[in-house]
Amino acid sequence: MSAHFQVDEDKAHQGRFRLKAGNGEIVAVGESCPTKANAERGCEAVKCAAADIVEAKAA
């Protein structure tokens, strides 16, 4: 399975997302949101904000 977002309700009935790697490991967790729809928008924000990996230069 490839990396994917999982959106559900937490124990407080708030929306929350998790980003899972292809092996099922959770690599990121979003904050609680008032609704699952807000959590889905959080997933989209993470996708849009994803950046290229760059190597840091020594000082």
Structural notes for this entry:
The chain is α+β, with helices and mostly antiparallel strands and 59 residues long. It has one domain (4-49): Double Stranded RNA Binding Domain (2-Layer Sandwich), CATH 3.30.160. Helices cover 24% and strands 27% of the residues. It has 1 helix and 3 strands. The protein has one helix at residues 36-49; strands at residues 4-9, 15-20, 26-29. The N and C termini lie far apart (40 Å). The model has no long low-confidence stretch (mean pLDDT 90).
Distinctive features:
alpha+beta, three-stranded antiparallel sheet, 59 residues, 24% helix, 3 strands, DUF1508
Which helices and strands appear, and what pairs or packs with what?
Blueprint: E1 4-9, E2 15-20, E3 26-29, H1 36-49
Antiparallel strand pairs: 1-2, 2-3
Short summary:
The chain is an alpha+beta fold. The chain has one helix at residues 36-49; strands at 4-9, 15-20, 26-29. It has one domain (4-49): YegP-like (Double Stranded RNA Binding Domain, 2-Layer Sandwich).
Structural class: alpha+beta
- Distance, first to last CA: 40 Å
**Sequence stretches where pLDDT stays below 50 over 5 or more residues:** none
Content of β-strand: 25-35%
Report on the biggest sheet. Answer: 3 strands, antiparallel
CATH-level-4 superfamily name: YegP-like
Number of DSSP helices? 1
The total beta strand count reads 3
Order of helices and strands: EEEH
> Looking at CATH, which topology would you report?
Double Stranded RNA Binding Domain
